[in-house]
Design goal:
The complex is a heterodimer. By secondary structure, chain A is mainly alpha-helical. Chain A contains eleven helices and two strands, in the order ααααααββααααα. Helices cover 69% and strands 0% of the residues of chain B. Chain B contains five helices and no strands. The radius of gyration of chain B is 20 Å and the shape is elongated. The N terminus of chain B is likely disordered. Classes of the chains: A mainly alpha, B mainly alpha.
């Protein structure tokens, strides 16, 4: 494949991955890495570097669309980013000691988890009406716009959420995904943020987390300009399309298609890794 | 700026100041990604039109380039001279810098609101990001 064809094909693939990621709310990384490895025969280390750039681009593109609507809780984001960036630096350090197949097995685990959570329609818990002691002392309560005015909410179980976020940061850096699935667990299930607040705050944080490990991978030479340029541009276009134009297309059918695609790619990656043919 | 003509804090205005902060942050993000996207688009067009586009793409083995192409100052000065790879890399670095700009922006806002706890928290996040991008040794 010539560089021209390669760049244009990667651009098209990244638009599709960014779009699908924004529409299902699960990020583009889980689709992009298999695409790069299976279709474009990219070494896993290049694919992870490119995916992190795509994750940042997707997060910034979607955040630019969401932040003005007043859903993002910047304090919660900043507090938890202490955990995710520390985790990301630890994960990037750990990645240097793990072999490509080990990283691939972890990634395949993330793929199947993403497919599973795409199939299970999120049933939002009722948001916490009052903050617990620590949540109140940290000033994390906020408001978000609803049909009938601003509604206030409190934040609970900050230490548990913080600990899960540390794990999300490690995972994000290790396999080059946004770890949106883990972040939603921490913010929805543990800290009981309202669904719309946790989704937009999580998306916002994903970019900061990925930037923390992308810097390390840049210095290791895993961010290649000819590969990452089309990936970044495609992810930007895809996320803007997904967040703004196609937001009404977020249907159950799409989640099922996403799950099927992800499982097929996961099985192919598993077969390839088990047979020792990992590119 | 004297103490009297500083913008009102969140405590003084209720929710108005945070909302204004969010709006300016949204604008900042749009400017950053539009600039990064344009630089990358020009870089892609340049690679394709310079004849390099005809050579074979092969990323199947990881071969890290020499250290020069991983120095931010070297990349930026080469990008100014319109070196196509450096131009692409500069656009990618702008993408990576977008979240850092957002954190910097929050730091200024928290400091302006005299919110000591969150100024410290945000400074810690910013320090981790700068360490990663500028030094990158973990």
């Amino acid at each position: 494949m010539s560089i021209t064809v390669f760049m244009l094909a990667v651009l098209a693939g990244s638009i599709a991955a960014g779009c699908l990621g924004a529409l299902t709310g699960l990020g583009g990384g889980v689709v992009l890495i298999p695409l790069l490895v299976l279709v474009f025969h990219t070494d896993l280390r290049y694919a992870i570097g490119a995916s992190l750039v795509a994750v940042i681009a997707t997060s910034s593109g979607a955040a630019a669309a969401f932040v003005r609507e007043g859903f993002t809780n910047v304090r919660v984001a900043m507090l938890l980013e202490v955990a995710t960036t520390a985790g990301a630096l630890a994960g990037a350090a750990l990645a240097a000691y793990l072999s490509a197949p080990v990283i691939m097995y972890i990634f395949i685990g993330v793929l199947f988890w993403s497919a599973f959570s795409a199939l299970r329609e999120p049933r939002p818990l009722p948001p916490a009406s009052a903050a617990d002691d620590l949540g109140a002392r940290l000033g994390l309560a906020g408001t978000y716009p609803t049909g009938d005015g601003l509604r206030s909410y409190g934040v609970r179980r900050v230490p548990a959420g913080f600990a899960v976020m540390l794990g999300a940061g490690i995972l994000s850096a290790l396999v080059g995904v946004g770890s949106g699935v883990v972040k939603v667990v921490a913010m929805d299930r543990l800290m009981r943020l309202p669904f719309k607040v946790s989704t937009t705050t999580s998306n916002f944080m994903i970019g900061v987390t990925a930037a923390a490990s992308a810097g390390v991978y840049f210095h290791r030479g895993q961010i290649d300009p000819v590969l990452c340029g089309p990936v970044a541009l495609g992810a930007l276009i895809g996320s803007l399309l997904g967040a703004r134009v196609l937001v009404k297309a977020r249907t159950p059918a799409l989640r099922i298609i996403f799950a099927i695609v992800v499982v097929i790619m996961g099985v192919q990656l598993l077969v390839r890794t088990l047979s020792g043919n990992l590119q | 700026m004297s103490d009297t003509d500083r913008p009102p804090t969140a405590a003084e205005t209720g929710s108005a100041a945070p909302r204004r902060l969010e709006r300016s942050m949204g604008r900042l993000l749009i400017v950053c990604i539009a600039a990064a996207g344009s630089v990358i688009a020009v870089g892609i067009a340049a690679v394709i039109s310079t004849g390099e586009g005809n050579s074979r793409a092969d990323y199947s083995t990881f071969t890290p380039s020499d250290d020069g192409s991983r120095s931010i100052t070297a990349i930026l000065s080469a990008a100014v001279r319109l070196d196509v790879h450096a131009l692409l890399m500069a656009g990618i670095l702008m993408v990576i810098a977008t979240p850092i700009a957002r954190v910097l922006f929050s730091l200024v806002s928290f400091a302006r609101d005299r919110d000591r706890l969150y100024t410290v928290i945000t400074a810690a996040v910013l320090a981790a990001l700068c360490y990663s991008l500028l030094l990158g040794r973990v």
